[in-house]
Amino acid sequence: AALLTLTRKRGAATYAQTLQNIPETQVTTLENGLRVASEESNQPTCTVGLWIEAGSRYEDAKTNGAGFFMEHMAFKGTKKRPGSAFEKEVESLGAHLNAYTSREQTAFYIKALSKDMPKVVELLSDAVQNCALEDSQMEKERGVILQELKEMDSNLTGVAFDYLHATAYQGTALAQTVEGTTDNIKKLTRADLASYVDTNFKAPRMVLAAAGGISHRELVDAAKQHFTGAPFAYKGDSLPALKRCRFTGSEIRARDDNLPLAHIAIAVEGPGWADPDNVVLNVANAILGRYDRTFGGGKNQSSRLAALAVEHNLCHSFEPFNTSYSDTGLFGFHFVSDPLSIDDMMFCAQGEWMRLCTSVTESEVTRAKNYLRNAMVAQLDGTTRVCETIGSHLLHYGRRIPLEEWDARISAVDARMVRDVCSKYIYDKCPAIAAVGPIEQLLDYNRIRSSMYWIRL
């Protein structure tokens, strides 16, 4: 009975109390520029990770794929620990390690018991600055990556988004895929990977983040011990700046009538990470909603576009997106439909875009804001999600933005603001379009462009 009472009390915290009771994020910057950030809690476990401002945008045409290749090699052995020894040491801790690479950031993180935090920091440092890059391991991972590239070709959603970047940012680094080309993966050498690490894995571009039952002071002490060596130092006044990636309204069509469904992605240029318009655009996307045929609700869904999709059998699924980068972004939607429904679905979706610009209502905005608040609080689930939030925020914004501040920004959005900001980014803009599959019914680009505004009398 006492346990049940305790459980009820723990679950009775209000939304406002939850926002106020989040532990403070402590940040310390070391002399070499490395930022060490943590959120302390009473968890028996912790997640410690290294978030690095590096990815495919920092590669050129010849080295595209080096970051993704390095992600595969990071935990395959170091100069101190051969591959098998590294894996056994991680397993002896009962730890779980992972990594990912995107267009603008790379992350390596380990989840372990809180008492093992100093050892985890040492393992991360060793993996990043002392990666062995043995020839035998490189050839093994080369084969793994080539197989992954083949499998990615069957993920038509991923293909559509890669094409969308290729046409929206043609001729720039953002047009490149994260994984690189097959030819590049076959040609990349140990020297290429070593050069990529030496150029990009520098302390001013790195955040050592941690969340869970750890002490910030102990984390800083461990960082000073393992992350102040020569490999992390940067000689010079500043790191090379990113080249501007300009958005181009254009399209890529990859027609294949042997495929059963069409994948269409359309986007306009959105703002960069730090732009306050992002909050308003996220509210707008929540108004559009998302849909999949597996959802219940039928025609009674709160999203007007979802209700139309059900009533007229427009698509199998759709989802809006707001993908941000340092200085630009892609704001749009992606849908999967039968070949004969493409035109109708595109017409309805663009019509909803125009409605966001002209006649969205306060009740829709209220519902969308509640949806965003729910998604925001979900970031508190588990030390790994909190750790990723800390690392990503420090790279994107220079600080971790408290949830109370996010909530205040969301609360400030009203229907007029949604109409104004959507008009700024959507109304009468040239979109980028990527289409894959049986897309004969997709209208000419100029016809789609003409639906980016309404003639109002």
UniProtKB/TrEMBL annotation:
Q: Which GO terms describe its cellular component?
A: mitochondrial inner membrane; protein-containing complex
Q: Which UniProt keywords apply?
A: Acetylation, Electron transport, Membrane, Mitochondrion, Mitochondrion inner membrane, Phosphoprotein, Respiratory chain, Transit peptide, Transport
Topology in the lipid bilayer is annotated as:
Peripheral membrane protein
The organism's superkingdom is given as: Eukaryota
Keyword Electron transport assigned to the entry: answer is yes
Q: Tell me, what's a Pfam family for it?
A: Peptidase_M16
* Ranges for domain Peptidase M16 N-terminal: 35-181
Any one GO MF term held by the record is: metal ion binding
As for subcellular location, the record says: Mitochondrion inner membrane
Instruction: Give the Peptidase M16 C-terminal domain ranges.
Output: 187-371
The UniProt family comment states: Belongs to the peptidase M16 family. UQCRC1/QCR1 subfamily.
Query: Quaternary form?
Result: Component of the ubiquinol-cytochrome c oxidoreductase (cytochrome b-c1 complex, complex III, CIII), a multisubunit enzyme composed of 11 subunits. The complex is composed of 3 respiratory subunits cytochrome b, cytochrome c1 and Rieske protein UQCRFS1, 2 core protein subunits UQCRC1/QCR1 and UQCRC2/QCR2, and 6 low-molecular weight protein subunits UQCRH/QCR6, UQCRB/QCR7, UQCRQ/QCR8, UQCR10/QCR9, UQCR11/QCR10 and subunit 9, the cleavage product of Rieske protein UQCRFS1.
Name by which UniProt lists this protein: Cytochrome b-c1 complex subunit 1, mitochondrial
